[in-house]
């Protein structure tokens, strides 16, 4: 397991589309991105060309509970939001950032939760988890790279 960078993330403003899913409903992710991609050009004031996949859990430790997923982009402000989209703010806080390579995100996430996290002084914090897909993201390629942002806080 590669050690993550631990960063103090500042608040991020996002604009995009959201849906709900259960942990095994991976098709919902594909459907959401198929809706979002043809409309992403409607988002104004983007910070960069990166795309963000976000997961918002009401109870991360309950694998049977539905959670919100987002397909979005970071923006400078949320003044002009396209009609088909919503705004979302990620509160600042500590994140462990892991470089993920390839297309098996579930395996990487499993290693983070079962190998890295138990060997630290951290626990999962109640903030969104997200992935940033930049210039090295190549959908469907084992050469693809993206950053996994895992919200953490020190154990009590």
Provide mean pLDDT, rounded: 93
CATH class identity: Alpha Beta
Spatial shape: globular
Helix content: 10-25%
**How many distinct helices?**
2
Q: How much strand?
A: 35-45%
CATH topology: Multidrug-efflux Transporter 1 Regulator Bmrr, Chain A
Distance between the termini: 25 Å
Gyration radius (Cα, Å) is 15 Å
Structural class call reads mainly beta
What does the main sheet amount to? 9 strands, antiparallel
The number of distinct structural domains comes to: 1
Layout of SSEs?
Layout lengths: L4 E5 L2 E10 L4 H11 L14 E6 L10 E9 L10 E5 L2 E9 L3 H12 L5 E3 L4 E5 L11 E10 L2
Antiparallel strand pairs: 1-6, 2-4, 2-5, 3-4, 3-8, 6-9, 7-9, 8-9
Pick out its properties.
156 residues, mainly beta, Multidrug-efflux Transporter 1 Regulator Bmrr, Chain A, nine-stranded antiparallel beta sheet, 15% helix, 40% strand, globular
How would you sum up this structure, described in words?
The protein is mainly beta and 156 residues long. It has a single domain, classed as Alpha-Beta Barrel (Multidrug-efflux Transporter 1 Regulator Bmrr, Chain A), CATH 3.20.80. It is 15% helix and 40% strand. The chain has helices spanning 26-36, 105-116, and strands spanning 5-9, 12-21, 51-56, 67-75, 86-90, 93-101, 122-124, 129-133, 145-154. Strands 1, 2, 3, 4, 5, 6, 7, 8 and 9 form a nine-stranded antiparallel sheet that branches. The protein starts with a strand and ends with a strand. The mean pLDDT is 93.
